[in-house]
Design brief:
Blueprint lengths: L1 H23 L20 E7 L6 H15 L2 E8 L5 H6 L5 E6 L5 H10 L5 E5 L4 E2 L4 H5 L7 E10 L6 H22 L10 E5 L12 H11 L3 E12 L5 H26 L4 H15 L1 H20 L1 H20 L3 H26 L10 H4 L1
Parallel strand pairs: 1-2, 1-4, 2-3, 6-8
Antiparallel strand pairs: 4-7, 5-8, 6-7
Length: about 375
């Protein structure tokens, strides 16, 4: 019984990463129509971005965003400054002739600011993007092109982490995200993308529903679009680039926040999401819910496997093996041995996810306001 339970829990733990993407290959492919990229007939677009302490990169970020808006043609830029204290506001004001700037001298959170920017715009399409990403000048047109298909409600750029060589933690984060984007690519062609990240995405204004300020806007907005019966798709030609956290401790904090925010959104939207068509509901349960309980499934599998191992080889060998493994990982991490550091980084990420779920379900936390990882902003 313990062996069977361990096996079932392990299968559930790996389902979002292995079984789910394989199973998607049995679903029917759903092609999408596209607008011409020649610049004619492009719908009006409002680009919305929130910034906190971004003085190190905000000038370069805005210059590129303005270039992208000019290349697209029919676009306006709206920026919310969420109480930054490092000179970000002064840099933003240099672009007053091109940017609709809203400055808050206190912190209200990203979602509050994005809701405000949407109210100040009137375009047919809304684009949301993060302040710490970079992209090519022609990134917008491919994101808008699929909206000629009436079934499409939201499009998402593909996120690439550029600093995998900076540290084992960065390499682990980049490897995880490559796998995530590969799953999204298959998902997009079949059951439809199940939620987006905030790096860069576009949705129809008519589908926008203002998220409560304590909930993260990217996941909330995209799942609301899904709940209204529209497709979410990933656009392979639209790439945005970002840095992964280089310190494992930073990634733990980041994963804790993201997991808490994701569970909070799930709890708010579940009455709507549970009525999704079964392919989308299968995708949501597989890609979203099971992923966030992976640490608990792995812990359960380990606990169930423990009496099996003891029965097979005895308690003392099992205890010695556990102690030896812990010592080897600790020493290897201290000596900066790559494989040990990557394992530790992965374990800390799992711990962060578990803490985030607990924060949401039992701690009542929201992370409406947070401190970004410093290494991500370098």
């Amino acid at each position: 019984m313990y062996a069977i339970a361990a096996g079932l829990l392990l299968l559930l733990a790996v389902h979002p990463f292995i079984i789910y993407p394989v199973s998607l290959r049995f679903f029917r492919r759903r092609p999408v129509s596209h607008l011409s990229h020649d610049g004619t007939g492009r719908p009006a677009l409002a680009i919305c971005m929130s910034a906190y302490n971004e003085a190190r990169s905000i000038r370069r970020r805005l210059e590129r965003l303005i270039e992208a808006a000019d290349a697209y043609g029919n676009a306006t830029i709206h920026v919310y400054a969420d109480g930054p204290q490092d000179g970000t506001i002064e840099i933003l004001r240099e672009f007053a002739d091109r940017v609709d700037l809203v400055v808050s001298h206190g912190r209200n959170g990203k979602t509050y600011g994005m809701n405000l920017l949407v109210q100040r715009s009137s375009s047919e399409l809304l684009m949301f993007t993060d302040a710490n990403v970079m992209h090519d000048i022609d990134v917008i047109a491919p994101l808008v092109a699929p909206f000629v298909d009436a079934s499409v409600g939201c499009t998402s750029a593909r996120l690439v982490y550029d600093n995998a060589d900076d540290s084992p933690a960065a390499a682990t984060g980049a490897a995880y995200w490559r796998a995530e984007e590969a799953i999204k690519a298959i998902e997009s062609e079949t059951v439809g993308l199940i939620g987006v990240d905030g790096a860069m995405f576009v949705l129809r204004r008519e589908l926008h529903r203002p998220p409560p300020p304590h909930l993260i806007d990217d996941l909330y907005l995209s799942l609301v679009v899904l709940a209204q019966g529209k497709r979410l798709i990933s656009v392979p030609d639209a790439l945005v680039h970002e840095r992964s956290a280089t310190e494992a401790e930073e990634e733990l904090v980041r994963k804790r926040r993201i997991a808490c925010q994701a569970i909070n959104v799930h709890r708010a939207l579940w009455p709507q999401l549970k009525r999704l068509p079964w392919p989308a509901l299968y995708g949501y349960a597989s890609h979203r819910m099971l992923k966030w309980v992976t640490p608990f499934l792995l812990a359960g599998a380990g606990l169930c496997a423990l009496p099996v191992a003891v029965a097979l080889v005895g308690a003392v060998p099992v205890l010695l093996l556990a102690v030896a493994g812990a010592v080897a990982l600790t020493v290897g991490n201290r000596l900066r041995i790559g494989i040990a550091q990557k394992i530790v980084a992965a374990l800390l990420s799992l711990v962060g996810v578990a803490q985030g779920v607990i924060d949401s379900v039992w701690g009542g936390k929201t992370y409406a306001v947070w401190q970004p990882a410093e290494s991500v902003r370098d």
